[in-house]
Write a structure and sequence with these properties.
alpha/beta; 10% strand
Length: 598
């Protein structure tokens, strides 16, 4: 009987440890092979997952509590369920399940991705399935523990030491993990990391529920700046001339120059990927972009103000470097879409992936406020397009759909923003020939070449439609942000915000006579420029200045704590959490805190 009792209890302990180990190894494997450089995630998920099961199972063994034992087994199962489910979701939603997709899981799979696969009512089958599986585990645990009712037997010293060590490691791992992602959680920004310790996943859900149910207070206004820093920033022309009245707006709005503005934000298109800029790129890799760089007005010192994509779109549309729920507040909600709408423009956002992924449809509507949004679901419902690449629809299908919408609105003023995806790993090379496969042997080069080709076809199609393309039309070719992945043709030691293309395609070249091609600027400066061309008034919430202003520097923000400033005479990196070393660094920190007083 004692042997049977010992065997049953040891088997229960072993089951709990195996469950925790499996879930931890899944987290460890995924986080270790993302290729993202996020070393702070290694190896904390391994031990972080063990915290809840250990806290429950230790008293279960010590006090012979069936309730705690069942809770420990269930929590271990939940860890495995989250890991395996996230892989399945990733497989169904985005790409074939292989080593590459597992490597990308940590960066691009979140709990919102459930809806991308299961639709609006995903919980209707998820809840009964979870209840069924958990009920089976509970029943099995009760059967095991019912056979052993003897009490008073002390926990062996070996088990006690083992649990104490694991409990300490799990507690420390959760603490360090929390410190590593504190800036992310503080900014209330979902990174998409489903592979997180279970306590943090619970906090994510609770935090999201709180923000959904409780209205958030309005953000505080711009902070007061040091006089010396203010003087330095004025000398650098960081601020636009303001009306002396209380509104703080520009003295008079300009006249609208363009009635149709189409912005194409190519995914992760680094300026150094263009053959015209970087001779080390293979010949003929980007013929359209190379030609436009010389035929049309373009900047060669234009930087991504922030990344990844959602943050980059915030820079482009809000002239701000953040992407948080705080952007939903009235003071920060003046985007290019809202400004264009007040000027009578039809405003549309086009994307190839599911609008449920990252909850983008809901959040973009609240932050950026386009009149219409086209995601994978809209392309499917309205044009019959189905998933044709790993993320959604590929570039040629996206551009074809965009052209149909634009032609439906050709008689109106319109402002459109198009996000592409083929140049995002795993790379999609739609319609590439065998000859081009030989010329460009890697998936990255093939995707880059076809991205350029399909973009060229789209621009030529717009040009061929005289109602869409005339003296009052502007096509802006740029990137959402600089490269954060891909083969290192950049020869940079890291992937901090760098130069991206900015090309203005229009027959009305007279507007750009005074544009300095070598001017330094970043993506927060595009929104003020387009606002002026729409005949709108630049709001005080915009951090950038228009490209024709005297300002000649690029202001960028990275990882929530580092400011990068690029100018003809300097390249400065400032940690906003440390004391600035020079007056100029202090001025840039003050500029940042003016818009982010918190």
């Amino acid at each position: 009987m004692r042997f049977r009792y010992y065997l049953i209890r040891s088997a229960s302990v072993l089951l709990m440890l195996v469950l925790t180990l499996v879930s931890g190894l899944l987290a460890l494997t995924i986080s270790n092979f993302t290729g993202s450089g996020h070393v702070q995630y290694f190896p904390w998920p391994l031990f972080g997952d063990a915290l809840v099961p250990l806290l429950l199972f230790f008293p279960a063994l010590l006090f012979r509590s069936r309730l705690c034992a069942v809770g420990a087994i269930i929590s271990s199962f939940i860890n495995i369920f989250l890991r395996i489910t996230s892989i399945i979701i990733y497989h169904e939603a985005f790409m074939p399940l292989n080593f590459q997709s597992v490597r990308l899981l940590l960066e691009h799979s979140g709990h919102y991705a459930l809806r991308a696969v299961l639709g609006e009512f995903y919980y209707l089958w998820l809840i009964p399935l979870s209840v069924l599986i958990v009920s089976g585990i509970v029943y099995s645990c009760l059967v095991v523990w019912r056979t052993s009712r003897r009490k008073g037997r002390r926990l062996p010293i070996l088990w006690s030491i083992l649990f104490a060590i694991l409990l300490l490691l799990s507690a420390v791992s959760n603490l360090l993990y929390g410190m590593a992602v504190h800036h992310t959680d503080a900014q209330e920004f979902y990174t998409g990391h489903l592979v997180r310790p279970l306590p943090f996943i619970s906090v994510d859900y609770a935090n999201d529920a709180i923000h959904t149910m409780i209205p958030q207070p309005a953000a505080s206004g711009p902070g007061r700046m040091d006089d010396a820093a203010l003087k330095t920033l004025h000398e650098l022309h960081m601020f636009a001339p303001r009306n002396p009245d209380a509104t703080g707006e520009l003295t008079a709005p300009p006249q609208a120059v363009f009635d149709k503005i189409i912005v194409v934000a190519v995914e992760s298109l680094d300026l150094a990927y263009l053959r015209a800029v970087n001779p080390k790129m293979p010949e003929g890799i980007t013929p359209n972009l190379d030609r436009w760089m010389t035929e049309f007005p373009a900047l060669t010192n234009y930087f991504a103000a922030s990344q990844p994509t959602s943050w980059a779109l915030s820079s482009l549309l809000l002239s701000r470097v953040d992407y948080t729920r705080e952007c939903r507040s009235k003071e920060k909600n003046l985007s290019l879409f809202t400004i264009a709408a007040t000027q009578g423009y039809f405003c549309a956002y086009f994307a190839p992936l599911s609008g449920i992924f990252g909850d983008n449809r809901k959040i973009y509507a609240e932050i950026f406020k386009p009149r219409v949004q086209y995601f994978l679901e809209e392309w499917s419902d309205r044009f019959g397009l189905s998933r044709s690449c790993t993320w959604g629809i590929s570039d040629p299908e996206l551009y074809d759909g965009v052209l149909k919408v634009l032609r439906q609105q050709r008689e109106k003023r319109l402002f459109a923003l198009i996000s592409t995806m083929d140049s995002h790993p795993p790379y999609t090379a739609s319609g590439i020939s065998e000859a081009d496969k030989l010329r460009f042997p890697t998936p990255f080069l093939q995707a880059l070449h076809t991205t350029d080709r399909h973009l060229g076809n789209f621009v030529r199609s717009v040009m061929a439609d005289k109602e869409l393309y005339n003296e009052r039309t502007l096509i802006v070719i740029t990137a959402d942000h600089s490269a954060t992945h891909g083969e290192n043709y950049l020869k940079r030691p890291d992937f901090t915000p760098a130069r991206i293309p900015l090309i203005f395609i229009t027959p009305n070249l007279g507007v750009f006579q005074k544009l300095d091609r070598k001017k330094f600027a970043s993506s927060i400066d595009l929104a003020p420029t387009l606002t002026a061309w729409m005949g709108g008034v630049t709001p005080t919430s915009f951090m950038g200045r228009d490209l024709f202003s005297p300002k000649n520097l690029a202001f960028c923000w990275m990882n929530g704590d580092r400011i990068f400033v690029h100018a003809p005479d300097c390249h400065i990196e400032v940690d906003v959490n440390k004391v600035p070393a020079t007056p100029r660094e202090k001025a840039f920190c003050e500029f940042f805190r003016r818009y982010y007083p918190q």
